[in-house]
Specification:
The chain has 641 residues and is an alpha+beta fold. The protein has 18 helices and 33 strands. The protein binds one RNA strand of 76 nucleotides through strand 12, strand 13, helix 7, strand 21 and strand 25.
Amino acid sequence: MKELIDIKLADGSEVSVEKGMTTLEVLKSAGRRLPEGAVLAELDGESVELSRPIESSGALSVLGFDSPRGSEAYRHTASHVMAQAVKRVHPDAKLAIGPAIEEGFYYDFGLDETIKAEDLGAIEDEMRRIIAEDIPVERKELPASEAIALFKERGEDYKVQLLEGIDEDPVTVYTQGDFVDLCRGPHLASTGRVKAFKLLSVAGAYWRGDESREMLQRIYGTAFDTEEALEEFLRLRKEAERRDHRRLGPELELFSIREEIGPGLVIYHPRGAVLRTVIEDFLKVEHAKKGYELVISPHIMRKDIWETSGHLSMQYPMYFFDIEGQGYGIKPMNCPAHIYIYKSKTRGHNELPIRYFELGTVYRHERSGVLHGLLRVRGFTQDDAHIFCTMEQAEAEINDAVRFAFETQRTFGFTSFRIALSTRPDLSVGTSDDWERATDILKQALSDQSLEYVVDKGEGVFYGPKIDVKLEDALGRLWQGPTIQFDLQLPTRFEMTYVGADNQEHTPVMIHRTVLGSLERYIGILIEHYAGAFPLWLAPVQVEILPIADRHVEHSKEIMKIMESAGVRVSINEERETTSNKIRKAWRMKVPYMIVVGDKEIESGTISVRSLAGRDERNVDLDGFISELCEEITSRRSLEV
RNA sequence: GCCGGUGUAGCUCAGUCGGUAGAGCGGCUCACUCGUAAUGAGCAGGUCCGCGGUUCGAAUCCGCGCGCCGGCUCCA
């Protein structure tokens, strides 16, 4: 007679079953069926295989692909299927790691022979065979010493290294046929449960993410529970390609990056310069409203400054050169200059906080492999500010800066964010007391505003911890946006002081913060978010006038003048081409409004209006249209995207 | 910086076996004066990324360098 255990099912009912039954058997004995799409079981909050014997009483439910843990296990199994396929194609391949990631999975292999993109098809074919074979995935617990022996025997050097680095004992090992992997699991019950998958790319990746170690070969893939979901994923990838700012930017004549000028260096064309100027003007006005003073500092500063700041000893990626025997560095940050403005006179506590704002263009020597369109460049302009205040004022100032950042992001059309708190990195200056204090104040500010965040351990700047805000765009992608950094180091290093109420000298604290991040990156993000179809207030050309024939040009120019004097950015297409083609061209340049002017309009004194958003209307009153435009511009409304 | 891929006209791309370079779009010229997502014809446009090598001969094969793309590491 077997021992009985009590299992509480998801619907609240309870059943008594024999110990050691699997989820499937428990459900069966309770007269229930395994739900369609079940991937994992959850027993008392722990996710386990559907095939795992249940050894103790508890609450049992079933997870599908739609649950985060379900899709993770699903993709993790897909990565094992891929690894098994790779081992069949390349028996010499050594297994490293192969987790599920946000949108799929990868697996890293050590292999002398290189895996090429065109080899992926063959690996996919092998994966299909493994899935068709429907091999059971078996979980085993092994003493660590046995596992080490097992993987040594199989020549899995990386697995042995992993085992030697972990304290767990026993460890779990998953087996499917001839394939064995060290893995915590959980997994699908068998390889046949993987329905829709695709291998996406091959890439290099350092063993354990450490660039001093050897490089492995990584294969990326994704898996879904239905072909439709996979198709949708691939469609979204195509859509992302269509929005790529590296393609749209030059196409919309916003900017270009040319080898002749230099990699990572952006040249703004007239339309891009308009866009950027609109953003800059907006920022200047908003900062003034919030009590920031505009300052301007030079692009190069003496090397000594960067010694004092710590940039030199932190090996910050800078450009250096000499002028008449004197060493200079091109600024990678604006802070030192702002510090010297502060230091230009004796400061009293009644003056604080002091807030200096600069659209500061900085240059950083980014390694060649990391450059990426506008998102990662070597020269960029930050909407940078430094707030100098007392320790007591810091929390309120950080709160204000965070609120300012979010408020501004909403104006630009972003509504969903992820926040990260980055703590002390390995290479840094200052005492651990200071770091702890600074980190606590940032945490306090985040909880003051009940903002949820994750902690990025060791991701802070060398002088202090920071809050990073990531923006979620129209396609659900995340982008690096504002950053708020708390700094207890530079004020000391630069011997900054203020005279307190006690008539003694004190050291102020310093907050570095941006609202958009960098204008280059932000413009790149805006292009992708709006697919180039900017809200009216940002559109480089807001209205394009299309005269039907030459005789309509003069009247069109009059309309243009009226609109321009109302502050609208207007262009006119005087080419001798068909109206259809003029519309097509304006459309392609994503001009929000098109005005057609012909005999009828001149006669009736009206205009015909077309918009990117789909409006198509005749006999529109010009003055009424202009006030509509002005309203849309001043309200800074975002289009539906 | 590292791994892999890639580089032909302003853009997108074709170019066979190594035999001296092509299309579409765009540009320019001409004609057309046109009513809501491509009017027609003609013309111009090339250091085939750069340097070196192999060869009678290189866009094509090899080496090195550079840029770009996908990642890693790094990051606003």
